[in-house]
């Protein structure tokens, strides 16, 4: 994969789900709208990161902020899907703990000037759990493949499962092998691309769960 793929193609491809979301917004349920918000957050962050990189400015602090924003948005997505008081309480507690741990990591452990691999790894583990739980809830429902939640959840599961492995490797190689880190970033970009495709499919369906 080339520099064009990671720096141009994937960031621009986000316009596909974004524009489809605008077109089909009138058919969206609450969880579809939250996933569209996730796409907007991704787009803004990608644009900011690319601009800072172009200006030669360290953009790592943006990733620290994004990790928290991403976790908040996805947590609210699953909350809207399950709409259960017990699940809401549990997810809010997890959300609060994660934010605290992320802030501690950014200030006292890794710092804001390098990629926050610890926070990203913890985030991936938690969200993989959310995704698996969500898919189990869907498994007995009829016509799951025509359910937008199925595609969102599957896309998130694929992305965070692969990313977790990448983040673990990054933890071991950070600052040691720049060429390997460059490869990891390209693989990560490819997984983002796959996630966008799954979300696009979900936006296309835009149907009510169940």
Question: What does this protein look like?
Answer:
The protein has 210 residues and is mostly helical. The chain has one domain (3-205): Rhopdopsin 7-helix transmembrane proteins (Up-down Bundle), CATH 1.20.1070. The chain is 80% helix and 0% strand. It contains eight helices and no strands. The protein has helices at 3-13, 15-23, 30-54, 60-82, 85-109, 117-138, 148-173, 178-205. Helix 1 runs parallel beside helix 8, helix 2 (15-23) packs antiparallel against helix 3 and helix 6 runs antiparallel to helix 7 (148-173). It is globular. The mean pLDDT is 89.
Short account of what is shown:
By secondary structure, the chain is mostly helical. The chain contains eight helices and no strands. 80% of the residues lie in helices and 0% in strands.
